[in-house]
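Q: What structure does this chain adopt?
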Amino acid sequence: MRQDLMSLPKTLAEDVARNLVMVAKLLDEDPEQAYGYSRVALRLASRVASVREAAGFASYAVGKYGEALAEFRAARRMTGSAELWPVMADCERGMGRPEKALAMAGEPEVQRLDRAGQVEMRLVAAGARRDMGQADAAVVTLQSPELASNATHPWTARLRYAYADALLEVGREDEAREWFAKALEADQGGTTDASDRLAELDGVEFTDVLEDSGFDEFEDADEAEVEDVDVTEPGGAKGAGAQGDAERAEASEGDSSAVVAEAVEGADQQPERAEERADEAAGGKGSQEG
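A:
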């Protein structure tokens, strides 16, 4: 990302970097807000590959698959990389074109993917098979050396989970339970709901022990107490901001990489001036956007 942004004017690079970092921070917890930041970054610097890629993932996260596909294609044209091929194929699925996604799984670009990318492509292809009503073919698609391996990789839990789900769809319940258990074993980060699926297969029902227990009354009382507390902003906050502004003024002629690094470190500040700087960049320095 920093390499891409070095082609931009200094102040513009700073604003674009802040928006991109906010996209990354919010993509999982608040995809709608992340999407908003991505649109600002796209308006500021649409000719930067990392901006187009970030915009693609933000659009993908909110289900705008056609928009996401256009951004991924643009990023791929700029970089020549094949790494976005699986998510591009999944966008085709999202747009109701599983046959196109399946065709992409057989293209030469797949051979250029690393191992993780090829596993991702296999997951997309299996999903396309299921979209087309070919459940048995989906099971076969997922059978691979990566699935059989006992090693654990970032994609292992998702691959095993997808296989278990495909087995369940074709009525192979015992095998599905076995693979949900294997998915849970590999799922250190909690990326799947394998434990819930196992419980469902075992007929286990969960009850909310806090329901009707009077806990809400205590919660309401705590909230009432909080409302009576006078909270003031720590006095050092403004000073820290002023000091940061002074340091930026002293380093105003620093090289581009330092500017971008500073922008990343300050990404928690809202980029309110982004729109103004986009207009200034377009009128004064020559547009870097396309």
